[in-house]
Design a protein that fits this description.
426 residues; seven-stranded mixed β-sheet; four-stranded mixed β-sheet; alpha/beta; 14 helices; Aspartate Aminotransferase, domain 1; Aspartate Aminotransferase, domain 2; binds 4'-deoxy-4'-aminopyridoxal-5'-phosphate
Length: 426
């Protein structure tokens, strides 16, 4: 089929993310991807500044990941996980326990980030049900968050970004703190810390858990905050008998400069969600980890099982490629890459502060953000970046990048130039 025929069929039948149907904007047709580059049907190549929604940390067609996948496909692509098990999933679970903060001991493998948040919430609600605290079924989070598009995760997304008004009466009504004060290196706002303690204490009888994205709030607005607020959450939840969930689906596997963002705070949550970069962006898989206390609590209940079991749970292909992807991180070389990218992003984006309409420029790890005082003109921004050989997908008032760790300094310079050019026209 020609590219024109494919795009006509796409327009006719394919529903794209966050898009109306029929769609209004024709997507770009990708035919291949290799290293940090996407190849389009018209022969153009674009440097991927998005790592395919933050997942392809090692880039595309990585020899080690390709080999892991092919080798596993030669043995078995899938078997059900109920009553059966296999080495790729067992090894992955053990590795995740080893590399995540101390205390997380059990691993529930599932299909996507949103499902891992569903599982995390189910674990927390069931824990308190099992222990006889029937009223503890609400969640507390802070504004500006994003935890996925299925219904329970939506209930803890930022109420405006998550369109809570559209879903009033459908979504469970959760409790919200204001967004954490901005700035990874800003001084701690003691009044916010007090508010954390007071809110957790006041609602402890009805709260099952607090759930937040540590250090970086991603799709809710690309905001960074001081790790001290995570310590405050840990202290408050521990003091008042509430569980703490960290959603590291976006921040996990090195993106913020530490392997897991929780490390910035030196805090272990009771439950941890991982996804996205878990398989190096090759296949959909996520994981929910929990402590022995959470697992033991659940197993004391009338229903001592966690009633969840996706068809493709523990998929061997995804597990094998996840093992290979985590294997690539284990020598620690990613730290040098992320540090190098961080400083290249800082110097490349510095001049964006002078662009009219830019209100903030911020960088943390391999994340660069240029925030405007108005909604991004998507068509103009996309034109500006693709003309410069770069792929970015801005949202709301944000131009941002999360490049693969193997992007070299020339690639990063192209990305930052494209972001500055987009800021001028968008
Ligand atoms: N939590 C966070 C922090 C995320 O960034 C995302 C995805 N952007 C999700 C949950 C949902 O993951 P998925 O899209 O794989 O369902």
């Amino acid at each position: 089929m020609t590219a024109e025929e494919l795009l006509a069929l796409d327009a006719e039948h394919v529903w794209h993310p966050y898009a109306p149907m029929p769609g209004r904007v024709s997507p770009l047709l990708v035919t291949e991807a290799s290293g940090v580059r996407l190849r389009l049907s018209d022969g153009r190549e674009l440097i991927d500044g998005m790592s395919s929604w933050w997942s392809a940390i090692h880039g595309y067609r990585h020899p080690a990941l390709d080999a892991a996948l092919t080798e596993q496909a030669g043995r078995m692509s899938h078997v059900m996980f109920g009553g059966l098990t296999h080495e790729p999933a067992i090894r992955l679970a053990r590795t995740l326990v080893d590399i995540t903060p101390d205390g997380l001991h059990h691993v529930f493998l599932c299909d996507s980030g949103s499902v891992s948040v569903e599982v995390a919430i189910k674990m927390c609600l069931q824990y308190w049900q099992s222990l006889g605290h029937k009223a503890k079924r609400r969640l507390l989070t802070w504004r500006g968050g994003y935890h996925g598009d299925t219904f329970h995760p939506m209930s803890v997304c930022d109420p405006e970004g998550g369109m809570h008004s559209l879903w009033r009466g459908v979504l469970p009504e959760q409790l919200f703190l204001p967004a954490p004060p901005p700035g990874f290196e800003a001084t701690i706002d003691e009044s916010y810390v007090e508010q954390i303690h007071a809110t957790v204490e006041r609602h402890a009888d009805e709260l099952a858990a607090v759930i937040v994205e540590p250090v970086v709030q991603g799709a809710g607005g690309m905001r960074f905050h001081h790790p001290g607020y995570l310590r405050a959450l840990r202290e408050a939840t521990e003091a008042h008998g509430v569980l703490l969930v960290f959603d590291e689906i976006a921040t996990g596997f090195g993106r913020t400069g530490r392997l897991f963002a929780a490390e910035h705070a030196g805090v272990t949550p009771d439950v941890l969600c991982l996804g996205k970069a878990l398989t190096g962006g090759y296949l959909t898989m996520a994981a929910t980890l929990c402590t022995q206390d959470v697992a033991r609590g659940i197993s004391k209940g009338e229903l001592p099982v966690l009633a969840h079991g996706p068809t493709f749970m523990g998929n061997p292909l995804a597990s094998a490629v996840a093992n290979a992807s985590v294997g690539l991180l284990r020598d620690g070389g990613w730290q040098t890459d992320v540090r190098r990218i961080e400083s290249a992003l800082r110097s490349g984006l510095e001049c964006a502060v002078d662009v009219p309409g830019v209100v903030d420029v911020r960088v943390l790890g391999a994340i660069g953000v240029v925030q405007l005082d108005h909604e991004v003109d998507m068509a103009a921004a996309t034109r500006a970046v693709t003309e410069r050989g770069v792929w970015l997908r801005p949202f709301r008032d944000m131009l941002y990048c999360m490049p693969p760790y193997l992007a070299d300094n020339t690639d990063i310079a192209a990305i930052t130039d494209a972001m500055v050019a987009a800021a001028v026209v968008a």
